[in-house]
């Protein structure tokens, strides 16, 4: 890595961290500041930068997540359906590790990154209003999208030359190419991860209280950033996020006619622009190969267990990279399995994968209820990404942070709705259904 690249990458880190702090200066909330700084630190520190502990590589992202959780030390009230599902999932995976039915290396992210990010998001939702959090996510999405576009236009990848000892840098550092073009990845290590994270920001941008022209211009910029990744999965996720935001976001208060007009315009745009874009970035043979590659996953479904690793088809090389035996693939092994639900089922069993699906169902139910929030809509819209990619590099950090925000805001709105219910008569005296002292509004 050249000195210029190091200087630019370092400058980006300092600039974005300072900007993250500036975005929340007016809120004077350590929770809002922690949210902003965490979002930007995860975006500018490559996943393959970290340290070795007990013979395993631990990325800096996990240290940043743990530091925020330790710094805030927030009390989390666990009462939502998503809370119960995630706790059940984590306890089940822990039991499978103890019983020897799954590999500890596979369980580490599930028992560390998932709950840490989720409960941190839960705590932040308790202390930070949706308006402040939406502004933070909106600015984060805009800056990340602008950087992705710049990376493509300048054909400059500042982190691709950064090697790190005893880390998976050789896996995530090289830039992927599609149709002869280098894809934007920034520090995420994978273009699908960058595109999916950008798609996460769309419902927040749509919900933020900006003038309509600024909001739609911002959404176009984020769309351009996703386009720079040349990721079909991310593009589908972005379309889903925008459509769901128009249909389900009650914050904007648009009339039915406005929503219908936006939906029709978005559908026409998707029908015209998306196929043209896909044709421009991909040849027919490439699309056919990609589709056939994923369709072949059906071969391993019969080897799934209700609980535990599908050990009959599991293989691992000396470098720790694992795969799944399948005769129809080159070398007889599926090296890259691009489906988070199926990969979870192979590693932990059908029951654990079903709990992951249940989390998405909870997000859907929340999005369709008065407890809907930009976070629950963003989580629901990630279905296409989870069905076509694994939870690699920084993606699970962002995904579970947003899931925690969705659960926290859902709980807050449920409590506000209970408090707003009329009081009952009891012996001529009026008694509240709940004690007001038990409720706490977000800051």
Secondary structure tally: strands = 9
Radius of gyration: 22 Å
Taken in chain order, the helices and strands follow as: HHEEHHHHHHEEHHHHHHEEEHHHHHEE
Q: What distance lies between the first and last C-alpha atoms, to the nearest angstrom?
A: 44 Å
Low-confidence stretches: 424-428, 430-443
Strand content: 5-15%
The largest sheet has its strands arranged as 5-6-7
How much helix is in the residues?
Answer: 55-70%
Count of alpha/pi helices: 19
User: What would the average pLDDT be, to the nearest integer?
Assistant: 78
Please state the overall shape, judged from the principal axes of the Cα atoms.
Answer: globular
Give a brief description:
The protein has 443 residues and is mainly α. It has helices at residues 3-23, 30-44, 60-72, 81-99, 104-111, 113-127, 130-154, 169-172, 191-207, 212-227, 232-248, 256-281, 284-295, 298-301, 340-348, 350-367, 374-381, 383-388, 395-419, and strands at residues 50-53, 56-59, 177-178, 181-182, 314-316, 322-325, 333-334, 424-426, 429-431. The protein has one domain.
């Amino acid at each position: 890595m050249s000195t210029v690249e190091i200087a630019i990458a370092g400058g980006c880190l300092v600039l974005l961290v300072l900007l993250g702090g500036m975005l929340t200066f007016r809120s004077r909330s350590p929770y809002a500041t922690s949210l902003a700084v965490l979002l930007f630190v995860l975006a500018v520190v490559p996943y393959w930068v970290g340290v070795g502990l007990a013979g395993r590589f631990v990325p800096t992202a996990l240290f940043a997540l743990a530091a925020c959780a330790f710094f805030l030390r927030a009390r989390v009230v666990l009462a939502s359906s998503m809370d119960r599902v995630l706790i059940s999932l984590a306890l089940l995976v822990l039991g499978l590790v103890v019983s020897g039915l799954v590999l500890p290396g596979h369980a580490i992210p599930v028992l560390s990154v998932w709950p840490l990010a989720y409960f941190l998001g839960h705590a932040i939702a308790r202390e930070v209003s949706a308006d402040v959090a939406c502004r933070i996510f909106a600015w984060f999405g805009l800056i990340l999208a602008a950087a992705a576009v710049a990376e493509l236009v300048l054909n400059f990848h500042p982190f691709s030359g950064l090697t790190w000892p005893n880390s998976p840098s050789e896996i995530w550092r090289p830039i992927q190419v599609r149709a002869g073009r280098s894809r934007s990845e920034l520090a995420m290590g994978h273009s699908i991860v960058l595109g999916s994270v950008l798609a996460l920001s769309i419902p927040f941008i749509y919900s933020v209280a900006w003038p309509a022209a600024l909001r739609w211009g911002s959404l176009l910029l984020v769309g351009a950033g996703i386009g720079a990744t040349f990721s079909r999965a991310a593009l589908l996720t972005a379309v889903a996020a925008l459509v769901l935001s128009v249909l389900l976001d009650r914050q904007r208060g648009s009339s039915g006619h406005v929503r219908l007009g936006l939906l029709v315009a978005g559908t026409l745009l998707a029908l015209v622009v998306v196929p043209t874009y896909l044709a421009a970035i991909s040849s027919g043979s490439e699309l056919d190969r990609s589709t056939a590659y994923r369709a072949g996953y059906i071969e391993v479904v019969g080897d799934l267990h209700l609980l535990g690793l599908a050990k009959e088809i599991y293989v691992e090389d000396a470098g720790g990279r694992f795969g799944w035996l399948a005769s129809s693939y080159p070398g007889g092994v599926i090296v890259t399995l691009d489906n988070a639900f199926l990969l979870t089922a192979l590693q932990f069993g059908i029951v654990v994968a079903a709990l992951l699906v249940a989390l998405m169902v909870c997000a859907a139910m929340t999005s369709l209820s008065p407890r809907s929030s930009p976070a629950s809509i963003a989580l629901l819209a990630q279905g296409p990404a989870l069905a076509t990619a694994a939870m690699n590099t920084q993606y699970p950090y962002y995904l579970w942070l947003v899931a925690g925000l969705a659960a926290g805001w859902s709980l807050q709105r449920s409590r506000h709705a209970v408090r707003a219910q009329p009081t009952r008569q009891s012996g001529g005296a009026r008694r509240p259904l709940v004690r007001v002292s038990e409720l706490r509004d977000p800051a």
